[in-house]
């Protein structure tokens, strides 16, 4: 009994190809979502850093 199965009828590959494309699209969308969230968090951090630096300068703390 062979370990690998290669069908004679190549149309049996179509469902596997469709599922592969669906998962690839899902992976790309997830990656883009992570990029957008990361960029938004970085902008929030920069604003927080700017706010803290301005508060530190007003209190007479170290520059």
Q: Can you give a write-up of this model?
A:
With 63 residues, the protein is mainly alpha-helical. Helices cover 73% and strands 0% of the residues. Keywords: Membrane, Transmembrane, Transmembrane helix.
Alpha plus pi helix count: 1
**Uncertain residue segments:** none
> What is the global morphology?
rod-shaped
| SSE string, helices as H and strands as E | H
- Secondary structure: helix percent: over 70%
- Secondary structural class: mainly alpha
**Total number of β-strand segments?**
0
Q: What gyration radius follows from the Cα positions, in whole Å?
A: 26 Å
First-to-last CA distance: 76 Å
Overall average residue pLDDT:
90
The major beta sheet can be summarized as: none
How large is the share of residues in beta strands? under 5%
Keywords: Membrane, Transmembrane, Transmembrane helix
List the helices and strands and how they pair.
Elements: H1 13-58
Task: Identify the notable features of this structure and list them briefly.
63 residues; mainly alpha
The gist of it:
The chain has 63 residues and is mostly helical.
